Inverse folding.
């Protein structure tokens, strides 16, 4: 599962008022190359919850993203976009679980 | 089991152009300036590469109708340049794979999500995608429950081949393959849950393609969607011995509600159905359909 997807998921358990972001329990993560498209990243940037992405990437062992939400001028920087690209699309949670931040319920993630 | 040829065996009543699965005209190549790789030269998923499981619905007439509708609308879809595409109830993965082949991946600026309530379908869809060398994020959930909050207003293209077969209500949402077809009363139980969700998830420029059966009362579905501000058009109509299918495209039309009000004031005596028919001539074949009000 890509971190783009993690960024779009929230816990849907009844009674949970804020099920976002889900915590990651990473058993195995992989990196898969995806073709770089700056326009796609610029389109996605405004839709992404930055802190959730930074934290998720860090729990996958990738700490290159700036902690603070970058302003949109960063979208002209190839260096920034490549890091964003890698975190958003190339890092995959292969085995593990997503955990509801309120109830602790686990949603397993696996390859098949 | 399946032949290589997926050309529709049924009569094509209203698909605009005849469906030509393998021939790309020069004109078409010129219209589409994106690079055509080997993979892209196949215009949809190949039936022999579609994975299967006894508990997963295999591509059938309804799946082919939906993919044919997407192919018929392909140039519009390419011009539309969607960023996020979503399929609800992906089953074998035939449709989402076909869409990804048609429109390209992140390199073309598009990302795909697909959901199914059936865990076997999630696995089979992943296998089908992989066999075609394309990617979508496939998620196990009821309709789109875990994505509904964050994906609101973001989906540019949504495709749905819902469980539309009229069944007793208690058959809806059962485990396994039954979830692929059991649609409850008039086949509308799941469709009626999906429509407000589609409205929530679709972006301002979002398009929805949905398969319906005549028994689902599609003209009434179009009226419901019209009240939410959507225009609609039938992209494919197909009749088999067993069922009469339509693939309907919905899109937001900012002027629609204003127009509706104006027209109703001008022409008070018009019954709603007649009004609808005058607006959308292609709905005319529903005149003899199952509508009762």
């Amino acid at each position: 599962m890509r971190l783009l997807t993690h960024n779009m998921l929230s816990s849907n358990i009844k009674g949970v008022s804020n099920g976002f972001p889900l915590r990651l329990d990473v058993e195995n993560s992989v990196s898969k190359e995806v073709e770089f498209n700056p326009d796609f990243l610029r389109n996605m940037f405004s839709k992404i919850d930055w802190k959730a992405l930074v934290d998720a990437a860090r729990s996958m062992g990738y700490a290159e993203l700036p902690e603070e939400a970058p302003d949109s001028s960063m979208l002209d920087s190839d260096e920034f976009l490549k890091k964003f690209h890698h975190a958003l699309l190339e890092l995959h949670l292969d085995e593990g679980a997503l955990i509801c931040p309120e109830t602790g319920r686990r949603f397993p993630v696996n390859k098949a | 089991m399946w032949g290589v040829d997926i050309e529709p065996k049924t009569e094509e009543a209203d698909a605009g152009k005849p469906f030509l699965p393998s021939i790309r005209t020069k004109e078409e190549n010129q219209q589409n300036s994106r690079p055509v790789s080997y993979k892209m030269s196949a215009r949809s998923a190949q039936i022999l590469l579609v994975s299967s499981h006894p508990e997963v619905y295999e591509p059938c007439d309804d799946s082919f109708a939906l993919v044919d509708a997407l192919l018929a609308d392909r140039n519009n879809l390419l011009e539309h340049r969607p960023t996020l595409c979503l399929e609800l109830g992906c089953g074998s993965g035939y449709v989402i794979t076909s869409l990804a082949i048609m429109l390209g991946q992140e390199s073309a600026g598009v990302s795909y999500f697909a959901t199914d309530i059936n865990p076997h379908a999630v696995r089979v869809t992943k296998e089908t995608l992989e066999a075609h060398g394309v990617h979508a994020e496939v998620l196990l959930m009821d309709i789109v429950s875990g994505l509904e909050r964050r994906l609101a207003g973001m989906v540019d293209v949504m495709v749905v081949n819902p469980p539309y077969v009229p069944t007793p209500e208690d058959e809806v949402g059962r485990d396994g393959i039954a979830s692929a077809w059991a649609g409850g009363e008039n086949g509308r139980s799941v469709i009626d849950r999906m429509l407000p969700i589609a409205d929530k998830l679709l972006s301002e420029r979002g398009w929805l393609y949905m398969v319906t059966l005549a028994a689902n009362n599609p003209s009434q579905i179009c009226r419901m969607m019209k009240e939410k501000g959507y225009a609609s058009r039938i992209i494919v109509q197909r009749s088999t011995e067993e069922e009469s299918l339509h693939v309907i495209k919905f899109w937001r039309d900012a002027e629609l509600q204003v127009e509706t009000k104006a027209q109703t004031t001008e022409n008070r005596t018009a019954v709603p159905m007649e009004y609808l028919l005058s607006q959308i001539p292609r709905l005319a074949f529903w005149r003899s359909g199952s509508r009762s009000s």
